[in-house]
């Protein structure tokens, strides 16, 4: 295998894939990239056995072949080479020789046949949506995913596909984020799959905000997202996601409407003096006044009064301030609405006149 | 065909429970001696008890016409009615031991009461059918000889361990009893060799020397006395300092009304008291005596009587946990005490005459208080001195000195007083890990991370208790399934657990619906906590919550403290080190970090002198 390629072209392919390669490995081949050279294309593959990322670079093919090379080392070398440098890479036996100008690197390779391939999704159903749409779904929900929870099915995002919409739902058991995009999917019956946390975060990194298509193929065990030059394949989490629709409350009798940025900033300020561990904030709403109160074990206190629009009787309710900040941060409207019922029931946050993204936050008894 | 079993067989079956090994025989017989009012008990063993067990006492003896009755099942002089059983104060009462032992050995019983002209003896192998007492020669008291134990139950005999192991068990059994009756002398011989000879212990010195003989010298120097009374119960004895952590739970003696008990509740309370200062793989050492109203404790739970059941389990737990926990918290860095902790040197008042009354923690703490007062006295005098020297007349022509200055100078003179800073003045940092300080006694080495960790941990715990525990509601209530009685137990603790941030409903006979959890605890921790709350029989029997919900959150705080404490290789200025040492002196349990590691060590001048061969 021998090829000639521009540094930038190669680097963009490598950096698309490097995220999936874990730094610590017990299986040596997993810290390598698989390089597959055919025609004038180099296909770079990285995997952690759950997720497989594949990126393509245009190269000058001098001798086709397959090889695996140490992923992070190759990536770091390319990154360190000057912009616009020409790279030649030649693999023979168990060594890969990389040359650029007056630099020479010899890397040790492992057999290409040892590289575990996840396999393509062939039998699945397919839909296509704009990258921007998929990205928005992920951005507006990913923060609510659980992390290393024993309820493994929460360590990911539920993707739900219906004929006329795609929904993303994430929850860690204390709050829930839901976002939906309206589009003709061409899929008649509902599909629900749970995409693992790491794949969601990788996707968010790979997707851009254009109308370029993202082709999504879903089978019973895998999902594949094809972005033309990059393709992500991941195993799905095999489990039952909680019945999220039961958790999203009917609209409450108390409705607060306020400037999102204003409330977010006030919350961020008061959060400074909340208990570092519990992050509790007390919301007191009476008439058009919203008061935020926090205090910490050092007996420091913060209090902010805000002018808001409010329908309903006075209420006092506690929340984890991070949950509120996350939800407000994920919205991008100017005004938001928070619906409440009582101090023991969940709060519902969404944009004014737009319920495509909704956030359910459970209260905290302070 | 159903038939009534012959007595011998019934006794052999009972023997299976009561006398499982030679040590159990020794225990039963020695207890009988004590119940007979013996002042001296001699135990002679051959071949680890398999050959011979001979117990001789100077108790009140058994009358000739009662000898054969003594060897009959359910015959006892100790109780006579159910009311007696309700308030058992003797060690034995079931009337099972002697017939059981007889049924599996060649037994000889010789006894002489005070009013008998001579002794009588009765014996048999396996049974005494038809045997009648014969006259014998023996001083006042009783002698029981048990030969060839398990001669007729070969299976059991085969299960005996080596001679050394069996004898160790016997020695332990006698030791346990000896620790409960300081007023009785005990002698133990094995194959003719003297093992120990414990004279009746009078006064604290005697008691301590017996403790030393049985528990070792180190325990005596590394322990502190305790004495607490509450709600008609009294706890006294000795508690090993946290630094005396043991890899095995081999030095734990709990006596309830003079009876050695191996009770989960009691051991649990003591373990909890030590939880914060001892690594979970280590065990505390203690010799403690609990005295409660005999009517409030049921000893007839277990054939060997090592388990008891308390009417007021919660109060007993609280007394043990509270007293020991408080004692540990009261410990302050006191270098001179760490090296002079000879309890024997302290003249202590005899609190309960005749019984094991190591006058306890109270006197130690009083002593400590007076020591502190003594230190302040000179400074107070110094402070007062200039004022008294100013006669009223003098003040007429001399403007009074500005008080603040004289006051502050007096205080400055007072601060270096020896024990105001037991951890000393910091000198330097060693390799970025240890603080080297000097106090009156010599050098002090402090592990800065461990010390800081403890300071933070205690602060966090205090904050949690002051601020109350919030409850974070769950989006989807979580169903936890468990046995019905477990769910009952949990439900009974509902209100107490709510205070610690755990909210749940009963959703079925065997299921609990968790609605809110303390924000400090992760999912796993909550699940573990629930299991802990119901998983233990002790807890299921009583509707009480012993603070596990708080303990679980403390474990998280311990982790937080560990992560936020200064790390190794952090350069500290003298002022920072000084602040840390003073913080440690003010902090409870500062002698150990959260994981039970020591935080500081004292190296005395004498030790340094020895090292450099000075003054020899």
TrEMBL record, chain A:
<protein>
    <recommendedName>
        <fullName>Beta sliding clamp</fullName>
    </recommendedName>
</protein>
<keyword id="KW-0548">Nucleotidyltransferase</keyword>
<comment type="function">
    <text>Confers DNA tethering and processivity to DNA polymerases and other proteins. Acts as a clamp, forming a ring around DNA (a reaction catalyzed by the clamp-loading complex) which diffuses in an ATP-independent manner freely and bidirectionally along dsDNA. Initially characterized for its ability to contact the catalytic subunit of DNA polymerase III (Pol III), a complex, multichain enzyme responsible for most of the replicative synthesis in bacteria; Pol III exhibits 3'-5' exonuclease proofreading activity.</text>
</comment>
<dbReference type="GO" id="GO:0009360">
    <property type="term" value="C:DNA polymerase III complex"/>
</dbReference>
<dbReference type="GO" id="GO:0003677">
    <property type="term" value="F:DNA binding"/>
</dbReference>
<keyword id="KW-0808">Transferase</keyword>
<keyword id="KW-0238">DNA-binding</keyword>
<comment type="similarity">
    <text>Belongs to the beta sliding clamp family.</text>
</comment>
<keyword id="KW-0239">DNA-directed DNA polymerase</keyword>
<keyword id="KW-0235">DNA replication</keyword>
<keyword id="KW-0963">Cytoplasm</keyword>
<dbReference type="Pfam" id="PF02767">
    <property type="entry name" value="DNA_pol3_beta_2"/>
</dbReference>
<dbReference type="Pfam" id="PF02768">
    <property type="entry name" value="DNA_pol3_beta_3"/>
</dbReference>
<dbReference type="GO" id="GO:0008408">
    <property type="term" value="F:3'-5' exonuclease activity"/>
</dbReference>
<dbReference type="Pfam" id="PF00712">
    <property type="entry name" value="DNA_pol3_beta"/>
</dbReference>
<dbReference type="InterPro" id="IPR046938">
    <property type="entry name" value="DNA_clamp_sf"/>
</dbReference>
<feature type="domain" description="DNA polymerase III beta sliding clamp N-terminal">
    <location>
        <begin position="1"/>
        <end position="118"/>
    </location>
</feature>
<dbReference type="GO" id="GO:0006271">
    <property type="term" value="P:DNA strand elongation involved in DNA replication"/>
</dbReference>
<feature type="domain" description="DNA polymerase III beta sliding clamp central">
    <location>
        <begin position="130"/>
        <end position="243"/>
    </location>
</feature>
<feature type="domain" description="DNA polymerase III beta sliding clamp C-terminal">
    <location>
        <begin position="246"/>
        <end position="365"/>
    </location>
</feature>
<comment type="subunit">
    <text>Forms a ring-shaped head-to-tail homodimer around DNA.</text>
</comment>
<dbReference type="GO" id="GO:0005737">
    <property type="term" value="C:cytoplasm"/>
</dbReference>
TrEMBL record, chain B:
<dbReference type="InterPro" id="IPR014721">
    <property type="entry name" value="Ribsml_uS5_D2-typ_fold_subgr"/>
</dbReference>
<dbReference type="GO" id="GO:0004519">
    <property type="term" value="F:endonuclease activity"/>
</dbReference>
<keyword id="KW-0540">Nuclease</keyword>
<protein>
    <recommendedName>
        <fullName>DNA mismatch repair protein MutL</fullName>
    </recommendedName>
</protein>
<dbReference type="Pfam" id="PF13589">
    <property type="entry name" value="HATPase_c_3"/>
</dbReference>
<dbReference type="InterPro" id="IPR037198">
    <property type="entry name" value="MutL_C_sf"/>
</dbReference>
<dbReference type="InterPro" id="IPR013507">
    <property type="entry name" value="DNA_mismatch_S5_2-like"/>
</dbReference>
<keyword id="KW-0378">Hydrolase</keyword>
<comment type="function">
    <text>This protein is involved in the repair of mismatches in DNA. It is required for dam-dependent methyl-directed DNA mismatch repair. May act as a 'molecular matchmaker', a protein that promotes the formation of a stable complex between two or more DNA-binding proteins in an ATP-dependent manner without itself being part of a final effector complex.</text>
</comment>
<dbReference type="GO" id="GO:0032300">
    <property type="term" value="C:mismatch repair complex"/>
</dbReference>
<dbReference type="InterPro" id="IPR020568">
    <property type="entry name" value="Ribosomal_Su5_D2-typ_SF"/>
</dbReference>
<dbReference type="GO" id="GO:0005524">
    <property type="term" value="F:ATP binding"/>
</dbReference>
<keyword id="KW-0227">DNA damage</keyword>
<dbReference type="GO" id="GO:0016887">
    <property type="term" value="F:ATP hydrolysis activity"/>
</dbReference>
<dbReference type="Pfam" id="PF08676">
    <property type="entry name" value="MutL_C"/>
</dbReference>
<keyword id="KW-0255">Endonuclease</keyword>
<dbReference type="InterPro" id="IPR036890">
    <property type="entry name" value="HATPase_C_sf"/>
</dbReference>
<dbReference type="InterPro" id="IPR020667">
    <property type="entry name" value="DNA_mismatch_repair_MutL"/>
</dbReference>
<dbReference type="GO" id="GO:0006298">
    <property type="term" value="P:mismatch repair"/>
</dbReference>
<dbReference type="InterPro" id="IPR038973">
    <property type="entry name" value="MutL/Mlh/Pms-like"/>
</dbReference>
<dbReference type="InterPro" id="IPR002099">
    <property type="entry name" value="MutL/Mlh/PMS"/>
</dbReference>
<feature type="domain" description="MutL C-terminal dimerisation">
    <location>
        <begin position="426"/>
        <end position="572"/>
    </location>
</feature>
